[in-house]
Amino acid sequence: ILNVEQSPQSLHVQEGDSTNFTCSFPSSNFYALHWYRWETAKSPEALFVMTLNGDEKKKGRISATLNTKEGYSYLYIKGSQPEDSATYLCAFVRNQFYFGTGTSLTVIP
Amino acid sequence: DAGVTQSPTHLIKTRGQHVTLRCSPISGHKSVSWYQQVLGQGPQFIFQYYEKEERGRGNFPDRFSARQFPNYSSELNVNALLLGDSALYLCASSAAGGSTDTQYFGPGTRLTVL
Predict the structure, then answer these.
(1) Fewest C-beta atoms under 10 Å: which of A40, A104, B13, B52?
(2) Does A34 contact B103 at a Cβ distance shorter than 8 Å?
(3) CB B99 to CB A101 under 8 A?
(4) Can you give the pLDDT at residue A54?
(5) Which residue has better confidence, B97 or A101?
(6) How far apart, in whole angstroms, are the C-alpha atoms of residue B84 and residue B35?
């Protein structure tokens, strides 16, 4: 069984705070890591596809880094806004997509 | 452009029945994947199809089957429903189904088995 872990499980932050969460995955046979944002009652939305050790991706106030040698990726949100409230999922890709259980972010106005 | 569409939105079935879920991918996408998401867990991979051929299968019993049609739409079939099959079933499409291809998800079908 391939384990993808995300921490923390949930997070409450004040509007304007910056935050980050972690996705841990096996460090061997790495192909790709995907990040998704999943808002309530909507479809999961792709954020980043990361493939190379040391990759850094950015989309507005959200950025992600990748360390394939130690098996983790960080997702950062700078200056959180209420519209950032969602569950953030990572998926480790080998022969299939293996999703973590997600980090639920609530941004309090 | 239309995104990934799934039907029906919600479904209630009883144990032992059969169910068919449908998915239409984004135009031009040739790969469709199916996932089961149970509350509190991440989506679990069920099947991937590419060009009408099964490319991958997750750890699900033979009661689960799928197919992809010439227009790249897909059906997921579940036979002999169990209470534990109650879940959100997500469909995702991508251009070629590769590990670095972005997957685009549909809104899901919520299946309740009574």
Answers:
(1) A40
(2) yes
(3) no
(4) 93
(5) A101
(6) 15
Q: Tokens for B80?
A: 């002999």
CB contact under 8 A, B104 and A97: no
* Candidate from B45, B104, B108 with C-beta closest to A97: B45
Model pLDDT, residue B33 = 98
Shortest Cα distance, chain B CAs vs residue A43, angstroms: 5
pLDDT band at A95 (very low <50, low <70, confident <90, very high): confident
Between CA B26 and CA B92 the distance in angstroms is 9
Going B26 to B99 to B40 to B79, the CA torsion angle's sign is positive
Answer whether A31 touches B (CB < 8 Å).
Answer: yes
Residue whose pair of structure tokens reads 């391939």 in the numeric block: A2
Mean pLDDT of chain A: 96
Tell me whether A13 touches chain B (CB under 8 Å).
no
Chain B: closest CA distance from residue A66 (Å): 14
Give the residue on B whose Cα is nearest the Cα of A33. B100
Q: Calculate ∠ Cα A46-A9-A1, nearest 5°.
A: 75
Tell me: pLDDT of B1 over 70.
no
Q: Read off the pLDDT of residues B31-77 as tens digits, 9 standing for 90 and up.
A: 999 999 998 899 999 999 999 999 999 999 999 999 999 999 999 99
Query: What's the token pair of residue B65?
Result: 């089957």
